[in-house]
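Quick illustration, no need to memorize.
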Amino acid sequence: FLEYFSSSDRLLSIDVSSGAEEPIWDKTHEFFTGLQLKAWRPVNSMLVFAMGGLQVGDLDLTATEMQVISLKDVVTEPTASVEDLLEDLSKHIDSLAASSHYFVIDPSETSIINKNMGSFHRRSLVFSDVREKGEGCVNKFSVRLNTLAGGSKPYFKAVCSSEDETLIFPSEIPDDFCQQLALCMALKHPSKK
């Protein structure tokens, strides 16, 4: 397999013996950027689900390049199954690959808001993390909150899918729902078809 690319002079070899990750990554990035290749889907995307007590207005979108997606506006049928909604959402996010990697999903007026996965339920190994505002994963992605009513300090749950997506939910959303949503989104991703 590699011989084909090598014989046609289309194989990039990188000497990593120095062990210096930053310069190696910088040069590799510079090389591929020079080719003006465009991503066909976002890599390491983050989706913040504005549900439960968290509203889109609670997030400070000026500090980041987060794009708000009103789910009801990008799906075929807002009352469709969660599986169908997530498939449509994945396609829409893939179409935005060049413009953003960070999204706020507003699921209002769709069947997701009911937190009912319907007939979709799969057993899988899922990694999740719960952190206080300003700690760990949420801070890493620069999600900033405006002041919430009552001065409460919100907590988040982060669930990573097998498609390199980090889904962030308010802490009051049930763990099982968050995990099943991440799994369903990964399984319904257009790359799986």
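Residues 21-34 form the longest helix (14 residues).
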